[in-house]
Amino acid sequence: MRLRVNPIACTGHGLCAELLPELIKLDPWGYPLLADTPVPRELADHAKRAAAACPTLALLTDESLVAGGRGGRHAARA
Amino acid sequence: MNTTTLAHRAVPRLLAGLSYYGPASLAEHHRQYGPPVAVGRRFIDVVDASGLTGRGGAGFPTGRKMRMVAVRRGSKAVVANGCEGEPASSKDRLLLTMLPHLVLDGLVAAAMAVGASDAYLCVHDHEWDLLDSLDDAVAERNDPVRVLVTGVPGRYVASEQSSIVQYLNGGPAKPTFAPPRPHERGVRGLPTLVNNVETLAHLALIARYGDRWFRSAGLPAAPGSMLVTASGAVCRPGVYEIELGTPIGDVVMRAGGPAERPRALLVGGYFGAWLPVEAAWPVPMTHAALKAAGGALGAGMVLTLPASSCLIAETARVVRYLADEGAGQCGPCVFGLPALADAMTDLAYHGGRGRILGQLAALIPLVERRGACRHPDGVTQLIRSALRTAAGDAQRHDEDGPCRGVTREPLLPLPAEDR
User: Fold this and answer.
1) Which of B39, B151, B354, B376 has a beta carbon 3.0–4.6 Å from B43's, enabling a disulfide?
2) Between helices B100-114 and B43-50, what is the axis angle to 10°?
3) Does A31 touch chain B (CB under 8 A)?
């Protein structure tokens, strides 16, 4: 599994970095910097939880991308 | 004959029908290039065989792009992207103003090949003259598909293909997050082919003369011709048609040669890179060669910077412009580009007491590849190439303050402020 951020939807709440500090750091402006590696199996559940907790649904797992997590629609409303 | 050398007889192709008094009428257009040829799905095989790649900057194989739309079921749409966002490029404008029927032939051929019934020709909405003349050109024709001439806001990122699609769908002219890509879900939700207008003009000629003719210009690995915009300190700036693989130095010489001693060349426009003159001179104009040289072919701009100009200051002005032109959607771009612009401005005009280069090196990775579109990446590529090409100057600016070149009249073109 891989993580991706929809940078248009992301408004820098920073929850993801709280929930998944192993893979996500925040830049000086509060936006997530993702580790450039696949999510290790032992963190998969944490990654899914972090994605589900994102207030703007900007954090995506590749499963949510395939399942029609159409970030562009949120983007258009943003 | 050695097949890797260029014959230099194959061009002009697109510009063969160029007259200097006004747009070519439909009759003049047919006299020059012959009547249009009706094409179907199999035309995509011809396009594949021709080796044509997108002339908007990315250089993606056109046949493959067409196929990605053609294989989808149901109705489709085709968009001609004539929103030339690059301030240093004028080739799309030249085609649209002087050879509109070449673009329209290509647009219709693309629509027929992928099975689209609707085609959109997009240009900047503040260019009323152009919109009117294109409407006239469409009215002159009797096309099997409906062609709609549409104005799109003239901002830099509005010419990105997902911006155009979102705008045509009633949204803001700003890039969208992918997926879905336009070929999956584009205009009105239909699979949509978006092509640059020069790409379409080449399609119009490939439909007439075939793939072997197309490959008879350029290099085997990079066939055909392309339009380039030569500007800056050259004697005859303008749009020229060259074979792919023509050395960059030949492009500068076609444009009359340097008007004063050159310092560096900006190849590929504001999404491209600075290259030192001696290193760039023999590099062939192909995507692969320019990438290997640390640059980008982009939409074929070659800008000559004279030795009396300051490369750092010129870059700082463009970076500020590009920072202001962002869509304002992605955090790293909203905050990162102004920070980069501030650092570049400090470096160019104030001197940094030896701290700015370090700041820039720390900022660049915070911006790169973190936007929904490639806008921030273009900015960092430009800055990186400036600091590489003018490394000595950058160091002196940082430690000792600005050079004399910063007082020279700005050279790199930027659109008027009041737009």
Assistant:
1) B39
2) 120
3) yes
